[in-house]
Design goal:
Length: 162
Amino acid sequence: MIEQRTIGTADEDRFVETMRHIREIQGLSQGELAARLAEAGWDGFRQTTVSRIEKGERTVRLAEAHAIAQVLGTSLARMTDETAQGDAQRIRELDGLIEGLEQQISACRQKLVQYQVEKHMLTAASGGPELEMPLLYRAYYYAMQKEDMAEDAVTQDVDYEA
């Protein structure tokens, strides 16, 4: 009997984890999921109900689980499948990796623009040929010039308008 309860608990845990994951992937808040369930005829569902289910404070009845799966566009079998839980975990891992790489790419782009603008400024200051700068670089260049002018105004006690 204990073994059956453990199996059932594992299925419930997988269902709740998959429910939360699908809800988040679809960009639904707990309140929006509750509203969709209410529209499907489950009037007793509120945001707090969804929250309590996700926290493990409230169990889900079988009919409710079917309704939740249907509202989320999947099946109850898929929501309790161990593969689905593994997929959900891997998707979260990939989301984190992608976010980290996007941040690194953004930082690299900023450095690239900074270095290209610095090269342009040094070339122009040394009397070298005028280089054509793309719009993004020009915007950064002018922003840097304004910062320099503002800094000069502070150090020389001069009025400066940005």
